[in-house]
């Protein structure tokens, strides 16, 4: 149930950074897998798409649909690449922890990177930071500032709370779903599957939960991308 | 190199450990390195994908959109062209039909005219022939009459001379002549 994290300290210009090597490993693996999928799919590009190009174009159109349901394409087009990358990265990350987890010397090495609250929160903060960045860039700083007093000036505290609530829920929703899935899988395969009877008893619930986790992982990737676009459009749009 | 996470379980108390691992953030401390690593990796991934995957893919999709648009335009153009050609052909057929009708009409009219011309000419010719024939007949008759008259005259003269030779004496002859002269004088 409980495994230690392989931590390592790194001193950088007087700043001590603590790395969880398992996270570093899994983030890298997820990134590499996403890159390879996208890279391999786009090697033989043709006007008339074949094979993997169909798949990757479907992903593109899917994200395009998400963006279009939140803002007009003229504004939203520039977030297309961000959306696809987020969707694929989070989906792949969510899937990584499903088939197995690797524990070596009591250190947990293989898991979903998104099952770590810090990783999920990093993505969420990055997204919310981007919404502020684009709001300032596309509407100007004064307009961006005025938005906090709309529609009424007494809404300011609520607006400020909203920003933090958005960030927290965005990150923790992803983390919670994936972490819970992995915990239950660990429980099933670790605690229930003891002895022959236990193994037999664990087969069915494990299968069911893996299937459900597959669904949850896909849904969470979709929700994360969707909410990213919702927040961006909320910040970027002129009409409230 | 590694050191246990900040909230390392108390030795020998499994229960606390299990509970701990469900608590948010219990698995690790605040690993600032992870934050930076995740951010940097994501940005690198974004940049790489943009360069190697999404860029070319969007290019080809744009190309396809352009291609389809141009094809649609082309199709529209050729359709209007075809419509124009069809209209033109229809007009041509109509014109040809009208012309044919006209030609037939003309031919009919011409035939009618020729027929009446020929009829008129024939009629005139026949009238002329009749006239000529009549004239000729009249001439022949006159000639015949003249010849007959001549012959009658000469015959009567011959008969008269024969009769006169036989009966008329010189005295009678003189008397007759005188009678005539007398008659003639009285007639005046």
Automatic annotation (TrEMBL), chain A:
Subcellular location: Cell membrane; Membrane
GO CC annotations on file: plasma membrane; proton-transporting ATP synthase complex
Residues spanning the membrane: 12-40, 79-98, 118-136, 183-203, 209-232
Gene Ontology biological-process annotations: proton motive force-driven plasma membrane ATP synthesis
Molecular function via GO: proton-transporting ATP synthase activity, rotational mechanism
SUPFAM superfamilies linked to this entry: F1F0 ATP synthase subunit A (SSF81336)
Lipid bilayer topology: Multi-pass membrane protein
CDD domains named among the record's database cross-references: ATP-synt_Fo_a_6
Main location: membrane
Highest taxon, organism lineage: Bacteria
Alphabetical keyword list: ATP synthesis, Cell membrane, CF(0), Hydrogen ion transport, Ion transport, Membrane, Transmembrane, Transmembrane helix, Transport
NCBIfam families hit by this protein: ATP_synt_6_or_A (TIGR01131), PRK05815.1-4 (NF004479)
Function: Key component of the proton channel; it plays a direct role in the translocation of protons across the membrane.
HAMAP family: ATP_synth_a_bact (MF_01393)
Stated family: Belongs to the ATPase A chain family.
Name assigned to this protein: ATP synthase subunit a
Organism: Domibacillus aminovorans
């Amino acid at each position: 149930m409980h495994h230690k994290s392989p931590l390592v300290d790194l001193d950088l210009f007087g700043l001590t950074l603590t790395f969880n090597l398992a996270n570093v490993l899994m983030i890298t693996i997820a990134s590499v897998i996403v890159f390879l999928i996208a890279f391999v799919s786009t090697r033989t590009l043709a006007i008339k798409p074949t094979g993997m190009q169909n798949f990757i174009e479907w992903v593109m159109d899917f994200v395009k649909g998400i963006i279009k349901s939140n803002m007009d394409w003229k504004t939203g087009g520039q977030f297309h690449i961000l959306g696809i990358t987020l969707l694929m990265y989070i989906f792949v990350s969510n899937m990584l922890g499903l088939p197995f987890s690797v524990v070596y010397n009591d250190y947990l090495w293989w898991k979903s990177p998104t099952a770590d609250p810090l990783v999920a929160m990093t993505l969420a903060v990055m997204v919310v930071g981007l919404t502020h960045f684009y709001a300032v860039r596309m509407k100007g700083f004064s307009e961006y500032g005025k938005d906090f007093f709309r529609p009424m000036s007494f809404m300011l505290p609520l607006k400020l709370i909203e920003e933090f609530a958005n960030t927290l829920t965005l990150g923790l929703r992803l983390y919670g779903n994936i972490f819970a899935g992995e915990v239950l899988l660990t429980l099933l395969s670790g605690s229930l599957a003891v002895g022959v009877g236990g193994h037999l008893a664990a087969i069915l619930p494990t299968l069911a939960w893996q299937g459900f986790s597959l669904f949850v992982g896909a849904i969470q990737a979709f929700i994360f991308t969707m909410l990213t676009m919702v927040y961006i459009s909320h910040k970027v749009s002129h009409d409230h | 190199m590694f050191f246990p996470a900040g909230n390392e379980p108390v030795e020998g108390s499994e229960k606390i450990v299990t509970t701990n691992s469900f608590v948010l953030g219990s698995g690790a401390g605040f690993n600032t390195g992870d934050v930076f690593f995740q951010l940097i990796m994501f940005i690198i991934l974004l940049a790489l994908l943009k360069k190697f995957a999404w860029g070319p893919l969007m290019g080809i999709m744009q190309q396809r959109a352009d291609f389809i648009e141009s094809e649609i335009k082309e199709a529209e153009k050729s359709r209007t062209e075809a419509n124009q050609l069809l209209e033109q052909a229809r007009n041509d057929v109509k014109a040809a039909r009208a012309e044919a009708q006209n030609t037939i009409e003309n031919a009919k009219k011409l035939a009618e005219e020729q027929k009446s011309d020929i009829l008129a000419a024939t009629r005139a010719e026949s009238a002329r022939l009749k006239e000529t024939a009549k004239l000729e007949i009249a001439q022949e008759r006159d000639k015949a009459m003249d010849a007959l008259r001549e012959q009658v005259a000469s015959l009567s003269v011959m008969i008269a001379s024969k009769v006169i030779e036989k009966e008329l004496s010189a005295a009678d002859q003189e008397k007759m002549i005188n009678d005539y002269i007398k008659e003639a004088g009285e007639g005046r």
